[in-house]
Amino acid sequence: RRRMEEQGVPSQKLLITQTFELPPRDADWIEQNISILQKMGIGIESFGPNTFKIDSLPGFLNVTDGAQFMRKVIDDLKSASDRSSPLRLGEEMIAKSVCRHAVKANDPLRYLEVEKLIQDLLECDLPYCCPHGRPTMIQISNVELEKKFGRKV
């Protein structure tokens, strides 16, 4: 939250700028909230009537279709905007995006990826839970391990 307020979210330039068109109502919503989107690491600007271009996205995301991603972000933010502040909207968008694009159970990872993932996790302000409050790690005592495996540690 602090980083987003002060510096914005780090973004990654896209190799190819993407354009997308929206219904007038959604386009108006983006125009009113473009600075929030930019603070969230989304390089977006108007590119004609009801059309926008994006040239960067938050660096921590693995997005293949920027236009589709933006439509989903807009839907998520519009549905939350009635009950949230702009800053809270940004946090919700980042939390949803991170969870949607996070490493999932049974995803194959190389050793270096696992090492980097744990290193990044330990550098977080709150490493013990995900943005939605679920635990990212748990403590298992030697006694519990001994019970599970039927062996002394």
Rg, Å, rounded: 19 Å
* Shape label: elongated
Mean pLDDT over the full residue set: 82
Strand order of the largest sheet: 1-3-2
Number of strands: 3
Oligomer: single chain
Number of helices, where a helix is a run of at least 4 consecutive DSSP H or I residues: 6
SSE series: HEHEEHHHH
Q: Sheet with the most strands?
A: 3 strands, antiparallel
- Count of all domains: 2
Helix content: 40-55%
Briefly note the CATH topology name of the largest domain: Ribosomal Protein S8, Chain: A, domain 1
Q: Which second-level CATH architecture of the largest domain applies?
A: 2-Layer Sandwich
Unreliable stretches:
none
Task: Tell me the distance between the termini.
Answer: 42 Å
What is the highest CATH level, the class of the largest domain? Answer: Alpha Beta
Structural class, from helix and strand content?
A: alpha+beta
The fourth-level CATH homologous superfamily of the largest domain is: MutL, C-terminal domain, regulatory subdomain
